[in-house]
Amino acid sequence: MRSDAIFIGVEVDDTVAHDTAVAAKLAEVCPVDIYAVEGGHTVLVEQNLDECVLCGLCLDAAPDGSVRVRCSESGAIQNWRPGPRAS
């Protein structure tokens, strides 16, 4: 499953999108409600995609590599974790 907005694109592997436990976790951890659960499956809330703050919580909540966040400006697919912030 994939959805693209102006600045952010999100892709979730179909096997993970249909996992009820992962769907609930993604919906729980996202601070801007990009993920929701419908019928036990993950759905992407398209109107919230560009609200993504690139926190990486969805990447931590799902199996490695099963969620990808893409920045439209660079076109790169990210499977990254944010680094430490400068003091």
Q: Tell me the fraction of residues in β-strands, as a range.
A: 25-35%
Please bin the fraction of helical residues: 10-25%
Q: Which CATH first-tier class would you pick?
A: Alpha Beta
**What is the domain tally?**
1
Q: How many distinct helices?
A: 3
* Overall mean confidence score, pLDDT: 84
Order of strands in the sheet with most strands: 1-2-5-6
Structure classification: alpha+beta
Q: Give the uncertain stretches in residue-range form.
A: 80-87
Number of strands: 6
Shape category: globular
CA gyration radius, whole angstroms: 12 Å
CATH topology: Alpha-Beta Plaits
CATH architecture: 2-Layer Sandwich
Main sheet characteristics: 4 strands, antiparallel
The SSE order reads EEHHEEHEE
The N- to C-terminal Cα distance equals 38 Å
What does this structure look like?
The strands form 2 sheets. A 4-stranded antiparallel beta sheet has the order 1-2-5-6. The protein has a single domain (2-78), classed as Alpha-Beta Plaits, CATH 3.30.70.20. It is globular and about 30 Å long. The N and C termini lie far apart (38 Å). The model is unreliable at 80-87 (pLDDT under 50). The protein is an alpha+beta fold and 87 residues long. Helices cover 22% and strands 26% of the residues. The chain contains 3 helices and 6 strands, in the order ββααββαββ.
